[in-house]
Design brief:
Hypothetical protein af1432, binds fe (ii) ion
Length: about 200
C-alpha cells in the first residue's frame, strides 16, 4: 500500500474529527510510532493505524448503526460491543478506513478493529494501537499513563502494560457499578495466565 498519503489522511481527519479527538489522534500516532520502534515493527503502518483508529468516532449513532448492521458478519461483532454506542466506532472504523481512506492492509484494519475491547492473542501492531490509545501523551492524564507505562521497561513489557490497563479498566467498571463484558474478563485472565501462570 501507499504510505505516502499520511499528510492527506491527517488533513481529512482534521475536517471530520472534533479538535479534542484530532489532538488525541495525533497523540496515538506519535505513541504508536514510538512503540513500533521499541518493538521493531513497521513504524509507518503503526502511524497509519494510530491516525485512523478513531476515524469513525465522530459519526452519528445512526450512521454507526447503519455501518454495523450492513457489515455485521464481516466485522465479527461481539454482542457486548452493541451495549453502548461508544464501542461502535472500532468495528465501524474498519469500513470507514477502507472506503474513505483506501486502506486495504489487513494488519492495519485489524488494529483499528480491536482497539477498544482488544482480544486474546493480539498481534504486536494490535497491542501497540490498543495501548497507544490509552497512554498517548497529548490528552491522557500523566497519573493514569504512568501506572501503565512503567511496565514497558520490564520483560514482556507490552503484555504487562496491557494487563495493567485491563486491571484498571475492570477496577473502574466495578467502582462505577457498570457491566463488565465477558471478553474483557477472558482477555484479562488469559494475559494473567500467560504472564504469571496464575491458574
Ligand atoms: Fe477509540
Ligand atoms: Fe482513541
Amino acid at each position: 500500500m501507499d504510505f505516502t498519503n499520511k499528510n492527506k489522511i491527517i488533513e481529512k481527519l482534521k475536517l471530520t474529527l472534533s479538535p479534542e479527538r484530532f489532538e488525541h489522534t495525533l497523540g496515538v500516532a506519535e505513541e504508536a510510532e514510538a512503540l513500533a520502534r521499541m518493538y521493531n515493527i513497521n513504524t509507518e503502518k503503526a502511524v497509519i493505524a494510530g491516525l485512523l483508529h478513531d476515524c469513525a468516532k465522530c459519526l452519528t449513532n445512526f450512521e454507526l448503526e447503519r455501518i454495523i448492521n450492513e457489515n455485521r458478519e464481516l466485522l465479527n461483532i461481539n454482542d457486548c460491543e452493541l451495549l453502548n454506542y461508544k464501542t461502535y466506532h472500532a468495528p465501524a472504523g474498519v469500513i470507514v478506513a477502507k472506503q474513505e481512506y483506501n486502506i486495504n492492509d489487513e494488519e492495519i484494519l485489524s488494529a483499528i478493529r480491536w482497539h477498544t475491547i482488544g482480544k486474546k492473542d493480539m498481534t504486536i501492531l494490535e497491542k501497540i494501537i490498543y495501548l497507544a490509545d490509552k497512554i498517548e501523551k497529548r490528552t491522557r492524564p500523566a497519573e493514569y499513563r504512568n501506572k501503565i507505562e512503567k511496565f514497558l521497561d520490564e520483560d514482556n513489557g507490552l503484555d504487562k502494560a496491557i494487563l495493567e490497563s485491563y486491571r484498571l479498566t475492570i477496577k473502574s467498571l466495578v467502582d462505577r457499578n457498570l457491566l463488565i463484558c465477558f471478553p474483557t474478563i477472558d482477555i484479562y485472565n488469559s494475559l494473567l495466565n500467560k504472564l504469571y501462570n496464575n491458574n
